[in-house]
Amino acid sequence: MELRINGVTREVDAEPDTPLLWVLRDNLGMTGTKYGCGVAQCGACSVLLDGVVTRSCVTPIDGLAGHEITTIEAIEADPVGARVVAAWVEHQAPQCGYCQSGQVMAATSLLKQNAHPTDDEIGAAMVNLCRCGTYNAIKAAMRDLVGVAKTADADRGAVLATSAVMLGAAGAVLAATRGEGSEAADV
Amino acid sequence: MEGRKYKRLSIALGVAASAIIVGAVGCWAVATRTPASPFDGAGEPVVTPALVQHGAYVARAADCVACHSLPNGPAFAGGLKMPTPLGAIYATNITPDPKTGIGAYTLAEFDRALRHGVARDGHRLYPAMPYPSYARMTDGDVRALYVYFKQGVKPVAQANHQSDIPWPLNMRWPLAIWNVLFGGPGEPRPDLAGDPLWSRGAYLVQGPGHCGACHTPRGLAMNEKGLDERSRSYLAGAEIDGWYAPSLRGDHNLGLARWSEDDIAGFLKNGRNGHGVVFGSMTDVVNNSTQFLTEQDAQAIARYLKSLPGDAGRDGAPWRYEVVAFDGPAGDTPGARTYQAKCAFCHGLDGKGQAPWMSPLAGTASSMSRNPASTINITLNGSGRVVAGGVPDAYHMPAFRAQLSDREMAEVISFVRTSWGNQGGEVSAKAVATARAETRPASSVPALLPTQ
Amino acid sequence: MSEAPIQDLAELQLDERPVNLSRRGFLLRSVGAGAGALVLGVGLNAGSARAQAAKTFAPGTRVPAFLEIRADNTVRLQSPFVEGGQGVFTAMAQIVGEELDIDPSAFVVENAPTGPDYLVVNGVMRITGGSMSVRTSYETMRRLGALARHMLLQAAAPRLGAPVEALSTEPGRVVHKASGRSLSYGELAPHALDLPVPDPTTVSLKSPSQFRWIGKGVARLDVRDKSTGKAVYAIDERVEGMLHAAVQHAPRLGLTVGAVGNEDQVKAMRGVHSIHRLPGAVAVVAERWWDARRAAEALEVDWREPGSDSTLRYMPADFSTEAFAKSLAASQIKVDEAEVKGDVGAAFQAAKTTIEATYHSQFVNHGQLEPPSALAWFHDGLLELWFPNQAPDMFLADVAKRTGLPPEKIKIHSPILGGFFGRHFLYESANPYPQAIELAKATGRPIKLIWSREEEFHRDVLRPMAAVQFRAGLDAEGLPTVVEAISATEGPTEGIAGKRQGLDPTALEGLTNKSYAIANRRIGQRYVKGPAMLGYWRSVGNSMNDFFYECFLDEIADAGKQDPFELRLALLKDNPRLITLLKAAAELSGGWKRGPYKAPDGSRRARGLGMASPFGTETAAIAEVSVEDGRVRVHEVWQAIDPGSIVNPAIIEAQVNSAVALGLSQVLMEEAVYENGLRTSRNYDLYPILPPEQMPRVHVKIIESGAKMGGIGEPGLPAVPPAVANAVSHLTRQRVRSMPLSRLTFKA
Ligand code: FES
Ligand code: FES
Q1: I need a labelling partner for A157 at 20 to 30 A (CA). Which of B220, B326, B347, C187 fits?
Q2: What chain C residue is nearest to B401 in terms of C-alpha separation?
Q3: pTM of the model
Q4: Nearest-CA distance A156 → chain C (Å)
Q5: Distances from the Cα of C613 to the Cαs of B373, C233, C340, C493, in angstroms?
């Protein structure tokens, strides 16, 4: 059957019940989309289907004709996706990185539908698992993306201060104005 | 395995209790009478490979493995534990081992056990064994089944497990009284409609298929309220062992009105169709029984079921799909949020699922029924694997019991049961807590019960 | 698709994945060059490496084995440590870049191949684990950078017409200040490679006050690739002609393969290439993994009990974790003492009050998000392997032993890890590469084997269960004078070995050598060998033992009517480093307050405290909790961490976040349960791990006390579970003595 992936039509030979995930990874060699659980529990396999985040491990290709699939490989071609990636880099979100393709897709989907989600809406949409515990960095990146003014503590979720910085009031002020803990450590 | 089924536990209990009451005023003579068999005095049947094969097919249609095989045990050696509040009872060894199985049974004795619930030594079987249904099986099928169990099944020496029910509740003779009252006609019913397909379907459904055991509501004595189409309660839907077995009649919401004959036949063969995917204890039935039916028999069952009229009074206003706007207030409830985070990836924001691979939730019987047992159970415990044509399903429902609290689970289930036109209504956290305590997660390991 | 799938892949690589093409090109080149040459395609070339081969080099000193400086002034570094999220590639770039004098952002870091050059863990071995990477190789890797810098200076001297002594460097350039002339490293690299590597003792290192990058929150090198799907993990690797494989393992360890009931039927399934019997497993090889997986699931295998001669660990059909926990608690096996101080018997006699309690830990999985895989390829007399691993040389030895191939015919690639937490060590029965090797041999094709998440949870090694019996005696002031802790458990090290080899320090770490001034103590183990396969889990013994000890210490505090914070201060009063640390944690949280109190949102909350000394680092954590809907909610975690000295505070902050998440996951919800010898959970549905909505805010304070450098990856974990449990015990007045909390019912 034919699938539209990242703006290109691809001919795919697979059973109709094959999950999109494995068509991407094995038939098409697009391994940026990850396998974590196969049962819609982790979100590592997230892609966009007509702009909406979808877990490709539980998406049989059967129903995909005529739909537009976007994978992480093309994320920066999407202006929202490019902003998300930039925020991810800025906030140094990934650790092992294995979940991050999916996290970036989930974030892109949310922001495409709702440019200014509330914290609750972010929480409701950003449900992918991360075993490395990058949740606070992701949250900080999201708040940045929706335009919430950064504060030193608030929802960075982590305050970092080397003892040296904490010693001086000047350091504390700098930390507050610079916002992000890890940058504050640079001063 | 233990989570597999508590099938008929409540039935066994109810029957035992009611039978004791009835038995107290009942008649000893009835209780000790040995029912007659058309095979009395007949010799051993002539065994042919075709007859053994026919018997194997009847065993599939009658789903004998469901109770008499354990997942990792020898075929038909029994042992399945069926807990009842009085104590557990155990399925028996029906391999041809002469000491512990049915090797010593004559055809007539086999027939008495199968169709009348009387064992070789005269003790009465608990109607966990669906002999009121099997009573309708033809002599030919009974003979074939007998030959299959004698010749086509390997003997296994494995002693039967005594029931855990204490004396005097473990007395079996009062069951005979129950039997007289509710045992059903001892004879198969002849063709009724001049449609051989219909008649074949009626036979399969009422007889070997014993569909009513789960799908027909039960009376006070735990008797099925009807045993064939003459009763409006027959196959009208019932709760059994933590699952709601929906109506198999022409009810628009709770039954099969929206299913075509092909849909029904396809469901029996594959465990899925455009309306839904099998789950709960019916998964085992599809895996071990209905998928092995011939195409024609599956069609016959469909023909028969489609002839059973619905009951608008009971069924309520016909379901109509309604759109849920997740970006509006409807989407801003805790239940809707959980739905989006946990359910929508498979079942869709539109509740329509990805048929036939993943079930819709919009308009399905379990979402429409006031009885929430199935919705709660599958959300807590997930579904077992459908193994059709030897291949395990590509997708199955995960279990959410470890992730959602009773309250969260009640919220999301209530959301499902009140969205997209569903009329099932809300469920309480307490109902979830009760079900949580009483049920176990389904296994994610695909397994068929052994038949050889 | 009309073409064969493999052609499809090749085409795709040419058309759309230039990155991959070059990567593949590199692989092919490296294959051709053989294992000895350590092909770096380098500025510092293989020829000179060979020329120097006669001389023996101490690990971490042969510059060409590590560094390639390219014309564009980028630096390729072969890291002896595998990147798995802990940021070690970036740390290595910082450390080497500091002394080489080039910005770490100019680095491209890869996992080094096997070989003696990379045995830089204390100069003798190579593993990525035990939070050892930076602290055991810090000097070596700095010196490596300094040696390379020196070679560049030497190469520059004739070209700048000045003696080496007159030259200096600026990031990426050699400068002759007097003339104002300079040359970039990229320009110099081709000439530097003709020079011999200087004697390591002749170069001097910077003083920390000169550090430009070490100690700074330098940006990680890998975040962009990891945010755009370009990072390649073992599971993503592929080579031409490759087939995919999936396995069905025996439902219980130790069972053997009997008949396969439906072999012909499965063989006829779409895409299936072949079916193979392996020890304790049956594998299906297919054109695509999905086809292999479905076929493997469809196999009806008759699993047999092992023969009496089986040496495999055996999981009996009646094993249950519930019964095992009880039997641990009731164990009468003799106690092996690990630490005895003072006169325990007399101290109990003299004690005013005695308390005792039994604590439990559960089996837990690693749950790294990348399921294990292995790609095995026999070609040209070589065996090439790609699989996640934390110690390539150990795996090389194992592969050599298994295959009978000489080590130089085996090439191990160590891709970046999609999380590890101790998962990717050499564990008998828990790694897919032996199976992949068998399958590649049997089929004559390259095989990529992936374990499904279900097979992974089934075969992963587990963090041990333990039951610890505590006793303590308190004096009239309510201060503890004696503590006894006897743990009935099997340590991970002896678990992996399968036998007792004297005391296993990983069984009791966190119970032994506590800094608290309690004069009399007796710490011991009852060695109870169980049927489950065990392994190292982030922070190893500390992951459970600090939970036990620190929770019991709160019990002691309560029994002695002491505040737990004050009690710890009292017991640590002669330890300035820990006093500073503890006070720093309290300060970070706005001052110690135990509660319960009402939070602005109306919830009742309390705080708890935990301390730990894992992997050479000191930590103190405070957690704030409430109970909502019967479930524990952790709102805030404050952690002070003193690793002595640091390389990258931003990465430390991230690692503490990560360790907090794993620690919380363990204490709140994780548990691998067995019933009837079978796992009850084989995916994240029934084995939930910490989801985003349960992640608290995490506040980190790093203290550089100047003590010997400690670890970072693991130390952030052990103090967290007890901090949470102590807060919950105090809030609910229900004493928590076991993990996970999701098992318990709370009223508050
Ligand atoms: S792999 Fe699809 S959700 Fe985990
Ligand atoms: S970054 Fe490792 S799983 Fe999320």
Answers
A1: B326
A2: C686
A3: 0.91
A4: 8
A5: 51, 33, 19, 20
Can you read off the two tokens belonging to residue B412? Answer: 């999301």
Our answer on whether the CB atom of A45 is closer than 6 Å to any ligand 1 atom is yes
Ligand 1 geometric centre to CA of C473 (Å): 51
- Report DSSP state, residue B91: P
* Predicted pLDDT of residue B366: 95
Query: Is pLDDT at A166 greater than 60 in this prediction?
Result: no
The CATH number of whichever domain residue C480 belongs to comes to 3.30.365.10
Mutate to test the pocket of ligand 2, among C86, C223, C369, C695 (most ligand atoms within 8 A of CB): C369
Q: What is the pLDDT of residue B10?
A: 54
Segments of chain B with pLDDT less than 50: 1-7, 9
CB atoms A17 and B354 under 8 Å: no
Contact between C169 and C153 under an 8 Å Cβ cutoff? The reply is: yes
Q: Does C293 touch chain B (CB under 8 A)?
A: no
The sign one gets for the Cα dihedral C445, C450, C455, C459 is positive
Put simply, the answer to whether A127 touches B341 (Cβ < 8 Å) is yes
pLDDT in tens, C416-435: 999 999 999 999 899 999 99
Q: Dihedral of the CA atoms B430, B432, B437, B440 (nearest 10)?
A: 180
> What DSSP state is assigned to residue B191?
P
Go through chain B and tell me how many residues it has: 452
Give the binding-site residues of ligand 2, using a 6 Å CB cut-off: A 94-100, 130-132, 134; C 85, 369, 419
Nearest Cα to C116, choosing from C217, C22, C35?
C35
ipTM of the complex as predicted: 0.92
Residue of C685, C741, C742 to mutate, testing the B interface (most B Cβ within 10 Å of its Cβ): C685
Interface partners of B (3+ CB pairs, < 8 Å)? A, C
Say whether B316-438 and B31-157+166-187 share the same fold: yes
List the domain range (segments joined by +) for residue C606: 331-351+463-743
- Expressed in angstroms and rounded, the spacing between residue A185 Cα and the centre of ligand 2 is 24
Which of B113, B198, A77, A163 lies closest to C644, judged by CA? A163
User: From the CA of A1, how far away is ligand 2's center (Å)?
Assistant: 33
C-alpha triplet B82, B85, B86: angle, nearest 5°: 95
Sort out which chain A residues have CB atoms less than 8 A from C17's CB and list them.
29
Listed by start position, the domains of chain B span 31-157+166-187, 316-438
Centre of ligand 1 to C-alpha C224, Å, is 22
User: Strand C243-249 and strand C447-450: pairing?
Assistant: parallel
Residues within 8 A of A (CB atoms), C 62-101 only? 84-87
- Among the ranges given (B170-174, C154-158, C286-290, C424-428), the one the predictor scored with the smallest mean pLDDT: B170-174
Tokens of C733: 């007045």
Q: Nearest-CA distance from B331 to chain C in Å? A: 18
Nearest to C77 by CA among C62, C96, C50: C96
Q: Which domain holds residue A170?
A: 154-186
| Burial readout B168-203 (b: 16 or more C-beta within 10 A, e: otherwise) | eeebbbbbbbbbeebbbeeebbeeeeeeebbbbbbb
A102-141 CB burial, b ≥16 within 10 A, e <16: bbbbbbbbbbbbeeebeeebbbbbbbbbbbbbbbbbbbbb
Strands, sheet with C618-628, edge to edge from the N-terminal-most edge strand: A160-162, C697-702, C631-642, C618-628, C604-612, C597-598
Instruction: Name which of B381, B358, B378, B357 is nearest B366 in CA terms.
Output: B378
Report whether the peptide linkage leading into residue B356 is cis, meaning its omega lies within 30 degrees of zero: yes
- Number of structural domains chain C divides into: 3
Q: Does B394 touch chain A (CB under 8 A)?
A: yes
**Number of structural domains, chain A?**
2
Which ligand sits closest to the CA of A106?
1
Instruction: Choose which CATH entry (1.10.3470, 3.40.1350, 2.40.128, 1.10.760) describes domain B31-157+166-187.
Output: 1.10.760
Please work out whether the CB of residue A181 comes within 6 Å of at least one atom of ligand 1.
Answer: no
